[in-house]
Amino acid sequence: MAVLTHISDDVMRIFDDYELVSASATLNLSDSGKVFKISGTGYTITLPALSAGWKAKFIVSGAFSTDFVVQSPADSRDTINGGVIVNGAIVEADAVDRVTFEDDAESIGDYIEIHSDGTSYFLSGNGNAASSISVGEL
């Protein structure tokens, strides 16, 4: 029988830490594990430097008037990989720079999650309406 080893993380959050995005910003390593609520005006969020174990979730909590963009840092372009399901179809992200929540197509509950292994960002998520989430280059 295999022996299981459990590792305790004394800083792991028991409950999600929600933060309302109210301005464009560059995230820090200390933002790992947060759930960012997006609504109102669209902003641009720049991910932190690639770091193994970093992760965040971005979720639409209300309608917004301009596109909301999540982008890789300038020194780490072409590092977002994975995909999102948009209106039942997969939108592939193959070495892209940005993920965009499109204004006027968003639905409350649309989301993306981003995880990093230190060399790439891995993307997953779901958008309800056609064209609600797109990926691409800067």
Secondary structure blueprint with pairings:
Layout: E1 17-20, E2 25-26, E3 34-40, E4 44-46, E5 55-64, E6 68-71, E7 80-86, E8 89-96, E9 98-101, E10 111-116, E11 121-127, E12 133-136
Parallel strand pairs: 1-3, 2-4, 3-5, 4-6, 7-11
Antiparallel strand pairs: 5-10, 6-9, 7-8, 9-12, 10-11
Name its key features.
mainly beta, seven-stranded mixed beta sheet, disordered N terminus, Jelly Rolls
Q: Quick check: average pLDDT? A: 91
CATH architecture: Sandwich
- The beta-strand count equals 12
Terminus-to-terminus distance: 51 Å
Helical amount:
under 10%
CATH level-1 class:
Mainly Beta
H/I helix tally: 0
Biggest sheet details? 7 strands, mixed
How would you describe this protein?
The protein has 138 residues and is mostly beta strands. It has one domain: Sandwich (Jelly Rolls), CATH 2.60.120. Helices cover 0% and strands 48% of the residues. The strands form two sheets. The chain has a seven-stranded mixed beta sheet, with no helix packed on it. A hairpin with a 2-residue loop joins strand 7 (80-86) and strand 8. The radius of gyration is 15 Å and the shape is globular. Mean pLDDT is 91; it is low at 1-8.
Give me a quick take on this structure.
This protein has no helices and twelve strands. Strands 1-3-5-10-11-7-8 form a seven-stranded mixed β-sheet, with no helix packed on it. Strands 2-4-6-9-12 form a five-stranded mixed β-sheet, with no helix packed on it.
